[in-house]
Amino acid sequence: MHALPDVVRRYFESAARPDHDEHSALFAPDAEVHDEGRTHRGRAAIRAWRAGVPPVRHEVTDAERTAEGLVVTATISGDFPGSPVAGLRFRFEDFDDGAIRRLRIAP
Is the model's pLDDT at 1 over the cut of 70? Predict the structure, then answer.
């Protein structure tokens, strides 16, 4: 398993906290997040998406560099139906040390 870049590590850490500004600040102003068949563009939309879901904890089980970017597999748990969910993949397709520009979340 690859070590997680700092911005990716902070993404998972901040998802467990209720501070949505901290979480959305990890994204570039024009970033995109694809989750559950919907696309959220820009920091305000990403913040609204994050605010609409309960805080979740991530247990990272794998991280692999692929042609798609960095694919992180995790088990998520929290106060939502069906918790925990194993094997969810977070595809960080475009990011650098300072910001995430494109993230796709899907099984």
Answer: no
User: Does the pLDDT of residue 38 top 70, yes or no?
Assistant: yes
Contact call for residues 90 and 102 (beta carbons, < 8 A)? no
Q: Which runs of consecutive H residues, i.e. helices, occur in 1-107?
A: 6-15, 20-24, 43-51
- pLDDT tens across 48-84, in order? 999 988 888 999 999 999 998 999 999 999 988 899 9
- For the purposes of burial, counting CB atoms within 10 Å of the CB of 77, is it exposed (0-12), middle (13-18) or buried (19 or more)? middle
Cα R_g (the chain), whole angstroms: 13
DSSP assignment letter at 98:
S
Nearest Cα neighbor of 42 from 33, 51, 31, 34 is 31
Distance from the Cα of residue 16 to its chain's centroid: 11
